[in-house]
Amino acid sequence: MLDKIIVDNIIQNALKEDMPLGDITTDNLIDENSKSKAKLIAKEAGILAGIEVAERVFRILDPQVYFKANFKDGESLKKGDIIAEIEGNTRALLKGERTALNILQRMSAIATKTNEYCQKVKDLPVKIVDTRKTTPGLRYLEKYAVRAGGGTNHRYCLSDGVLIKDNHIQAAGGIKKAVELARKSIPHTIKIEVETETLEQVAEALEAGADIIMLDNMSYEMMKEAVKLINKRAVVEASGNVSLETIYDIACTGVDIISVGKLTHTVAALDISMKFID
């Protein structure tokens, strides 16, 4: 479920960005009392995400708008599907069109991409998770879209959990020292994850008591050895250069989690349009 306060804040910022001083075209062409009908149409197949956000865009601009969603988030779309039917103040529909579509297209693209990855490993006991490689200001919506596509969220932000990466290790003086420093300061409810690149680092992270061990950019054979070495004493996450072509083989190494930056940082918008109708 989406938090309406957070969603409204994102939308308000997007609308201010798009029309800081109003819509000079619409405001000078369209009578303020004019009413219109429109449809949101899928121009390609995919997984829907963000329909409630799109509705909220129009409702902020016209509280009396009629918005009928024909699909729910997480449902499959075919080319030509009428995603939603809208009726309301013409100015509001025109002013909200681009913001609503930008959000809906991007969220649906992320859900679609996530679903593709999840389908590749649907028969294996592994979770597909996102990363923090998100669009600034849109992380909340993008991580929701990952869930709509069947994926799972990694930590939301730097405040959520300890993830000791290569530069932390270098700056702190080693994995053992980094884990010790973290344990002294964090609450007992917070888990510690350590990024590793070699089997020696995996062994050091285990000895230091890491709760989660990330295998970063390892070969399949090295990942298999690492999983065997860890032997369920920590959660195992694979990361780095994950693609649709490699994810199944990575999952077969026995890791518990696979984090995929491509779910959010390189997706192409799902083609959705808004058309006025008589």
Helix fraction? 40-55%
Describe the main β-sheet briefly: 6 strands, parallel
How far apart lie the N and C ends?
34 Å
- Oligomeric category: single chain
Give the radius of gyration.
23 Å
Total DSSP E strands: 12
Which regions contain 5 or more consecutive residues with pLDDT less than 50?
none
Tertiary shape = elongated
Number of continuous helical runs: 11
Average residue pLDDT: 97
User: How many structural units, i.e. domains?
Assistant: 2
CATH-defined topology of the largest domain: TIM Barrel
Q: What's the CATH architecture of the largest domain? A: Alpha-Beta Barrel
Strand sequence of the main sheet, in spatial order?
6-11-10-9-8-7
Tell me the structural class.
alpha/beta
The CATH class of the largest domain: Alpha Beta
**Beta-strand percentage?**
15-25%
> Mind telling me the CATH superfamily name of the largest domain?
Aldolase class I
Order of helices and strands: HHEEHEEEHEHEHHEHEHEHEHE
Write up this protein:
The chain contains eleven helices and twelve strands. The mean pLDDT is 97. By secondary structure, the protein is of the alpha/beta class. The protein has helices at residues 4-18, 24-29, 51-61, 90-120, 139-148, 166-172, 175-185, 199-208, 220-230, 247-251, 262-265; strands at residues 35-42, 46-47, 66-69, 76-77, 82-89, 127-129, 162-164, 192-196, 212-216, 235-239, 257-259, 272-277. Helix 1 packs across helix 4, helix 7 (175-185) runs parallel beside helix 8 (199-208) and helix 8 runs parallel beside helix 9. The protein has two domains: 4-118 and 267-277, Alpha-Beta Complex (Aldehyde Oxidoreductase, domain 3); 121-265, Alpha-Beta Barrel (TIM Barrel). The two termini are 34 Å apart. Strands 6-11-10-9-8-7 form a six-stranded parallel sheet. It has a four-stranded antiparallel sheet with strand order 3-5-1-12, covered by helices on one side.
